[in-house]
Every structure is written in structure tokens, then in C-alpha cells.
Amino acid sequence: MRDRWRVWQERLREVTGVAGPPPQGRAAEAAPQQRIQPGAPTMRDAAGTETAETAAEASAESQGRAESRSFARQELRLLSGLVLLIGLGLFLALPFVLSIGSVVFLPLTTAIILFILLSPLADKLAGWGVPNVAASFTALLVLFAIVLFAIALIMQPAYALFEELPAMAEQVGQRFSEIRDEFAWLAEANQRLAEMMGQTGTNQVVISSPSMIETLALATPTVLLEVLLTLLLCFFMLEGRVRLRRHLFYDRVSFGTSIRAARVLREVQDRVAAYISTVAMINAGVGIVVALGAWALGVDAPIMWGGLAALLNFIPYIGPMAMTVLLGLYGIGTTDTLVVGLIPAAAYLGLHTVEANVVTPSILGARFTMNPVMILIALMYFNWIWGVFGALLSVPILLMLTAFFDHVGRPNLVGFIFGEPLFATDLFDGDEAAAGTPAG
After folding, report:
1. Which of 279, 274, 316, 315 is nearest to 116 (CA)?
2. pLDDT tens digit string along 380-404?
3. Which candidate, 177, 297, 316, 355, has a CA 20 to 30 Å from the CA of 201?
4. Dist CA 4 CA 27 (whole Å)
């Protein structure tokens, strides 16, 4: 049997080159047994090697992705630093550009704020069937009529006081002379101290300045030109507001960008319009109370003082201070004693304290609550650029910028110094979450 199996296997190998099937029965016992050499790779070893190679490739890929994200973070931080430096440079250089070009930039800024304020009125008139051009002109005409009425309300009673100005100025000077005489000992002590220190008197050089009439004559053409430019710009902005919105909403690449632009525009318009209208009503109430108080105290032209209080209250901090000084000077110039003359100023100061700390915060609420430091910075910044007009426009401009950054994202300046991103949203958080979440 063993010989027959060997012959059959040799013939099969000669024909096909492949060994025959394993022998059955006793032939299987007689067949030579194959032995596994020690150290030869098995199927389990091959599978383990393949798994190790896959894990090494995944680890290398993860490490490369982490290095790429780290490099991207460093690059983003460098770009954020450059943007911050450029923004700081613009913040410092912008006042000089805006101040030099105030003939252009001041009417443009004022027209933008008036456009935001008057757009709801023009839209309401257009909704009633009024043509767009007529609605825009009517809205601008309403604003012009309100301003003229306020000026007439203040100036008409003031004409009666112009004749009394020399006498009031003389009495104010007399009061200050009395106060100076009472503190003459202080000036004498200062002079003796200067003599003891060996300081001698110095010659004073007085440079003549133009009179008030000359200043007004030189400034009137510029003011008239700026007012005319502001009204024209505001009218054309109101007339083209529909085209502006259509271009802003429908000419964007993505629908999400259009929605975001619409929200920013609506938020800016709502905030500025609501703030100005609400503050105007509060200031009108302050003017009425001041007028009634001036009438009760026997002050001349109470309507004029009420109108001045309402207008000056639009300027934060500086306006009420100016109103207090004016009332104090008027009281000193029209009364016999200093204490009685300061009563109207003290009464107004108390009214402003209640209005600024109780009435206005409760009416405006948290929506318009802004940092007082930011208000003061904006007030000084725009007052430095455009004077009194800049102080009037400072809070609306700050509201516009606040509404814009609320939607776009406020820069994290303090966190950026300590290594955090410049903006609160980290662009790589989504990538890390996606990388850390297993698929399926």
C-alpha cells in the first residue's frame, strides 16, 4: 500500500506539478507528517502585525493633525496681533484725519445718524401710500420743523435778556471781586512766599485774539455749508434706502450672510432710534420741570431755561455741568446775595441727580446700559475731533458700534494678552470636536 501511494503521488506530480490529496485511512497514517518549524509566522502573528501597523499610522496621522492645528493657532494669533496693532494705529490716527476733513466727515456722520433715526418714519409714510420721494422729504421736513421750533422756543425769550446782559455781567464781576477780597490773604501769603524763594515778577505777553463777532462771521459760512450738506446727504439716503437694503440683502453670496446683514442693520436702527426717541422724551420732561421750577423761583424767561436744559441734557456729563454754570452765573448776576443766587443752580443739580441715577436707568433698562468709562472715552474722543457736535454724536456712534460688535463679535483684548484668542469663538474648537468624536 505504501509503495502504491508513492507511485500515484509521483505520477500526479509529473503531470500537474502539484502533490496529490492527502491519503485516506491507513494511507494517512503512512503519509509523511508536516511539521511546523519553530519561529515560522502564523496567521495570528500576521493579524497582530497588521493591527500594529494600522495603529502606528493612525497615531502618526493624529500627531500630524495636532501639529497642523498648533501651527494654525500660532498663525492665527500672529494675524490677530497684526490686526490689533493696525486697529490701534487707526484709532490714534483717525482723529487727525477726521478733524482735518471735518467739512466732509462731520456732515456724513450726522447724515447717517439722521438717516437711521428717520427711516422708520419714512417707511411708515410709504406704507400709507405716500410716494418714496415725498415720504423722504416729509420725514426730513418734520425733523427740520422740530429743530426750528426748539431754537425759536429758546431764542425768543432770550432776546429780552440781551439788554440786561451788561448789568448782569457787572454784578457777576462785583460778586467775584468780593470773593477775591475775602481771600486776599491767600494771595498775599503766596506773594511773600515767592519773595522768600527769590522769585521776581515776570513780564506777561498778551496775544490779541479775534472778537466774538469776528469769530461768528468767519464760522457762519462753514456752518451753513455743513448744514446744507447734511440735509442733502440725509435726503438722498432716505430716498435710496430701499435700493440700499436690496443691495445689502440680495447681493450677498450666501443666504446666511444676507440674514446676518439684515439683523445687524435692524439692530443698529432699532437701538439708535429707540435711544434717541426715549432720551428725547426724558429730556423734554426735564425741560418742563426746569421751566416750572424757574417760574416758581421767579427766574426770568422760564421757557428759555427749560429749552436749554432739554437740549444740553443730550450731551452726557458736559451738558448738565454747563447748565449748572449758566444758572449759577445768572443767579449771581440777578440777586443781591451769593447764597440766594445759587439756589436755581442747586435745584437743577438736585433734579439732574435724580434724573440721571433713578429715572433714566429705570426707563432705558439694561438694553441701553453702557459702561460709563466707555461713554466718557467716546465723549472725549469725538469732542477732541469735532468739538460740541462731536460730543452730541458720541453716544449714537457708540451705540452703533456696540450693536455692530454684538453681532460680528467683540474682541477679547484682555484675554488676548494672556494667550486667549482675540475673539471669543475659537475657530479650531469644531475641528478638535470632530477629531475627538469617533465616526459611526
Report:
1. 274
2. 888 888 888 888 888 888 888 887 7
3. 177
4. 10
Output the DSSP codes for 305-327. HHHHHHHHTTSTTHHHHHHHHHH
CB 115 within 8 A of CB 237: yes
Query: Which cell numbers in the block locate residue 200?
Result: 521776581
Q: What is the pTM of this model?
A: 0.64
* Other CB atoms within 10 A of residue 230 CB: 19
Q: Which three cell numbers stand for residue 255?
A: 443666504
Q: Which three three-digit cell numbers place residue 310?
A: 432739554
Residue with cell 505520477: 11
Burial annotation 352-390 (CB, 10 A radius, 16+ → b, else e): beebbeeebeeebeeebeeeeeeeeebbebbbebbeebb
pLDDT digits (tens, 9 = 90+) for 75-126: 777 777 777 788 788 878 888 888 888 888 888 999 998 898 888 888 889 8
Decide: 31 and 5 in contact? Cβ < 8 Å: yes
Which residues lie below 8 Å from residue 233, measured CB to CB, with a gap of 6+? 107, 108, 111
Distance CA 171, CA 158 (A): 19
Give residue limits of the domains in the chain: 95-160+226-251
